[in-house]
Write a structure and sequence with these properties.
The structure is a homodimer of 125-residue chains. With 125 residues, the first copy, chain A, is mainly β. Helices cover 4% and strands 46% of the residues of chain A.
């Protein structure tokens, strides 16, 4: 994926599914993922890694057991490792993630609907 | 820097200097930097790491020895490790970077004007 310009609007236009991240690029062994979602995810945590969310379009809530964090387009938040959270969007939200390659979207939880077993690369234009 | 919402417009509003990245957050041992720049940087490369640029506002050129890559707001590009490049912006550009902490902005080159010896954390609102 190196050596290619990724236009985020175009990249988000290439898919419609929710909760199914695409790989938009790799920085060493870290990846940039883009994901669309709406509704509520599943409570989970990542014991081994922090996780960055940057909202591209829309709004989202990152709910922790003790507080809600509200994010709008152009805002980022880093979820610390080991902290349980759930992501929520009332209307469709588009977000960019930075995290180590191989990080499972549902962390320590296996969810038949939400766990993304394959995270395809974006197909270039 | 974890646990805090970073609004990119506000964050870029907190400083004016060019070529002096600020740390906007950390994902494990990687950092999110934000930087403003205008003009031409210095030719350099990073032998040990790839480097991601995501343009927040304005336009930039990443010039390689054999081609120019043009980026506008909402576009990202990952510069592969070991490849000489120079960043250029005719008008002021705001960009977000993602790379390992401690990556020197001028890579293998020491430049009295451009090398950022300190990359301060953003002061939270």
């Amino acid at each position: 994926m190196k050596g290619r310009v990724v236009n985020l609007d175009q990249a988000f236009g290439q898919f419609t599914e929710h909760w199914r991240p695409r790989i938009a690029g790799a920085v060493n062994d870290y990846v940039v993922k883009i994901v669309k979602f709406q509704g509520e995810f599943v409570w989970h945590k990542h014991d081994d890694t922090d996780e960055l969310f940057l909202v591209h379009k829309g709004r989202m809530i990152i709910r922790f057991r003790d507080r809600d964090v509200h994010l709008s387009a152009g805002e980022l938040f880093i979820i610390p490792r080991g902290v349980e959270h759930i992501t929520i969007a009332e209307e469709e939200c588009e977000a960019l993630l930075f995290e180590p390659g191989g990080t499972r979207n549902t962390g320590d939880v296996e969810d038949a609907d939400k766990t993304a077993t394959v995270e395809p690369d974006l197909v270039g234009p």
